[in-house]
Each structure stands twice: as C-alpha cells, then as structure tokens.
Amino acid sequence: MLNKLDILLKEWLISLGLSENTAIIFRDLSELIIAIIIGLIAYYVALKIILKLVSVFAKKTKSHWDDVLLEKKFFKRLTYLVPAYIYYLLFPIALNEYPELSNLVTNLLGIYMLIITVQVISSFLSAFEAIYQEYEFAKSKPIKGYLQVVKIIIYVIIGIVVISILIGKSPITLLAGMGAMSAVIMLIFKDSILGFVGGIQLSANDMLRTGDWISMPKYGADGTVTDIALTTVKVQNWDKTISTIPTYSLITDSFQNWRGMEESGGRRIKRSINLDMESVKFCTHEMLERFKKFQHVAEYVDMTEKEVQVYNKKFNIDDSVLVNGRRQTNIGVFRAYLRGYLHHHEKISDTMTFLIRQLQLTERGLPIQVYVFSKVQAWADYEDIQSDIFDHILAIIPAFDLRIFQNPTGSDFRELKNKTKNFMK
Q: What does the pLDDT read at residue 291?
C-alpha cells in the first residue's frame, strides 16, 4: 500500500508540471513530513489517551501489581516505542532514494528502540522487586542483588548489539573478539562480581535480612539494615545517619547481628556496680533481725540462719569467735536480695539466663554484676527499665551496711584539707 502511494504521489506531482527529479524530491519530503506527523499523532494518542485509560483501569482494579507497574513508569516507557516503531517502518520508504541516509536513520532508530526496550525491562524488574518486597519472606530472601545482576547482563548484551550495529559487525563476531578483554572486564566488574557472590552467601546462609539490627564498628555501622543491593548494604544508624557497607565485606569481615536477641523475646542487661571491700563484713544478730524485715530477702535470711546454726552445732563450732564455722555476710544477703527483687520484677524474664554474681576483685573494689534479660526490647523502654533497676540498687545498698566504691573527687580533697587545717589549729 505504501509503495503504491509512493508511485501515485510521484505521478501526481509530475502531472502538476514538475520535472521527475523535482517531483521525487517533493515526494520524499512530503512522505517524510507525513511520517513525522503520523508518529507524533500516534505518540500523542498512546501517551494522552491510552496511558490515561490504563491509569484509570489500574486504579479501579483490586490487584496491586498494575499500580506498581504504573508507578515504575513501565507503561509510559512503552509509549516511547510507538513513534519509534512507526518511524522505523515509514522512514525507509520516504528515504528510499537515499540508501546511505536511510540505513543511518534506520540504525539510529533501531538503537533507540533497543535503549527504550532496556528501560521497559528495567521498569518491569523494579516493579517485580517492589511487589516482592511486600511479602514477609522478602526480608529473609532479598532479591535486589540478583535483579541488579540480571539488569547488568541485559545492559551488556544490549550494549554489544548497539556497538555491533554501529560498526556493522555481527554480535557473535564482537563477542569472540572480546575474549582477549576478559581480564579488563573482570577488573571493571570486580565489585559487582564480589557483591553478587557475597549476596548469594548472605542469602543462602540467612546471615542478613532487611530490617536486621547489625553492628559493624569498622564501617561505623550500628543500626537497621534498610537495603541489600548488589554491591552495597545500607544501614540506618540510631543517630539517623546512613552507613554504606560493601556487600562482600559482610562475608570477609565480622559483624554482629542482633536478630537472635529480637527473636528470643528478651534483651540482655549486663551491668556491674563496684562495692567498697572495706564495707564487707559478717552479719551480727542485730543486722540479721533487720534484714528479716526486708521483703525480698526475709525468707532467705531465716532459712540460711537455720542452716548455719545446724552446721555449727553438728560440728561443735565455737561461734563466739567470728572466724569459726559458717556465718552470713552482708554482701551475701545483698546478692540474695537482688535475686529476689529481680525475680519479682514483672519486666525481667525468669526463663532466660539469670545471674547475680561477683567478678574478679580489682583496685576499684568488688564488682557485683547483674546479668539478666528484660522482656522489653524497645530501646527507650529497655533503658528505662535498666535505669530504674540500678536506681533502686544504688539506693538500697546502704541498708545492707555496704558502700559504693568511688574514686576521691575534688570535694573529698578539699574536705580533707579543711580537716587537716582544723587539726593543726
């Protein structure tokens, strides 16, 4: 049909009194203008009418995938192919008298359509990733890295085809010639290859998921994983800064993943207080009577005192001397009090590790460590619980005739200086 139109238009121009050469020029120019107008009309119809109809239809449907495709500009990029394809068909006819120019324009249009096709595929893959991320299992099995690899492969293939079109060689011939450049290609895509391998290992071993809290001091990362890509992992730190970690570094270097803590249902409290060793002593009868009035330790004091008396009586111990036999100490009663207090604390877990223990003596006193797990994991609430517990512990220590160890301060030295002056007077 187009060829017949081409002949009819030429004959009509000649019938108007134009020479054959002039008629051919006007015919080709007219056909070129008509082709351009047809392409623009087709693009307008595709963009302003068809795309709007698709948008309205996507918003009315119950499914979500068409909305995501629309958001990722999948349909919009498809409209770019409409005028290009029309020009690809019509321009060779309009330029049939100019074969070199026709080949050049056809090649350029072919390259343009390949580039748009890559963008359409990229939009589809991005939409697929967005839909995939909405499912719960996507956190443990991220696919962003794999999709990026697919995109890279497509870009490389299209790039080879484009180069082959420009130089007029077969893509197979071009690929064969690239064998010698494999080392250069490996160097260029080193990070991508390492990231791909690292992503596979992270996913296969379930080492990292989106939403995990990780700590990696080497890269200044301490926060939540927000994105796992081909070459990088993004971590939003607790101060709202973003740390970017090479994916492969998570395989070669060490990092701490707090997911186990979050899944366990508890969060560890591990903190020590240092007691002045000079305040540790045996309990007197008066002290024990006072301790029996303390709610969380009364039963312990009474039961232990009976055991001590039975033991001393059994072995005929002279308890008039403090060093003989068994006796309760104020620090032992204090540790028992802490166990009772924390066992009765509604926000401390009884089913997980629960320790109140002494650590190695140091020049800073005797450390008593609280090693328990909070039922609450939220950071702010967890810190409040921990602070409340140690507020109580610090306030209750003097009740057991114990003292907190504290290095001398400026006020201590001033007081000592004043006492010395008063003594000298």
A: 94
Residues in the chain: 425
Question: Residue 201: is its pLDDT beyond 70?
Answer: yes
Distance of CA 65 to the CA centre of its chain: 24
156 pLDDT above the threshold of 90: no
* The pLDDT value given to residue 397: 96
pLDDT(185) > 90: no
pLDDT digits (tens, 9 = 90+) for 22-40: 666 666 677 677 778 888 8
> C-alpha dihedral over 56, 57, 60, 63, to 10 degrees?
-130
Residue 96: C-alpha distances to residues 90, 190, 233 (Å):
10, 47, 54
Q: Is residue 253 part of a domain?
A: yes
Structure tokens at 252: 């070669």
Cα 339 to its chain centre, rounded Å, is 38
Residue 262 vs residue 283, higher pLDDT: 283
Of the candidates 195, 214, 244, which is a domain's last residue? 195
In contact, 128 and 117? CB cutoff 8 Å: no
CB 145 within 8 A of CB 250: no
The structure tokens listed for 114 are: 């390949």
Domain assignment present for residue 283? The answer is: yes
Calculate ∠ Cα 266-270-271, nearest 5°.
145
Res 39: pLDDT: 82
pLDDT at 1 over 90: no
Mean pLDDT of 124-147: 78
207 contacts 257 by C-beta, under 8 angstroms: yes
Residue 223: strand, helix, or coil: strand
Asked if residue 288 lies in contact with residue 305, where contact means CB atoms within 8 angstroms, the answer is yes
List of residues 6+ apart from 244 with CB closer than 8 A: 219, 232, 233, 234, 235
Closest-CA residue to 394 (of 370, 360, 377):
370
Kindly state whether residues 161 and 82 are assigned to the same domain: yes
> What are the distances in angstroms from CA 308 to CA 171, 189, 342, 358?
93, 75, 25, 22
Q: What are 138's two structure tokens?
A: 């996507």
In whole angstroms, give the CA distance from residue 275 to residue 375.
Answer: 28
281 and 321 inside one domain: yes
* Gap between the Cα atoms of 355 and 371, Å rounded: 5
Name which of 60, 73, 203 is nearest 125 in CA terms: 73
The answer to whether residue 344 is domain-embedded is yes
